[in-house]
Amino acid sequence: MAKKGKKKKQSKGKKTNHHIIPSSRGGSDLPDNIARIDRYRHDLYHQLFVNKTPREILRFLYKKHWCGKGLRGHELALYNKLFNNRSPQEVINYLVSDFWKNQSRWIVGINL
Hints:
There is one protein chain. The protein has helices spanning 2-11, 39-49, 54-66, 73-83, 88-99; strands spanning 15-19, 34-38. By secondary structure, the protein is mainly alpha-helical. The chain has one domain (2-106). It has a two-stranded antiparallel sheet. It is globular, with a radius of gyration of 14 Å.
């Protein structure tokens, strides 16, 4: 267990490429699909959202957490680590600004 904690501390602050549309889902390696994110937050993001697209993430949060029964257990712990008790609107703003490169085009016209 000590190794895990040490690894997390070492990865904080180091940047990695984040594919906005995951490469496993057809996302490109072009600059408009890549955001530079610190590795720790990137790991949390993918543990919670796996390889969902931005639209799928918003639907997931809306249906399962914000308007549903809520996240539980491991999912809730990851959500709290990543979003630090932000309101739903603050979570959306955070995702758009930090993970989706201020490109609201990823979520325009979404039907929650």
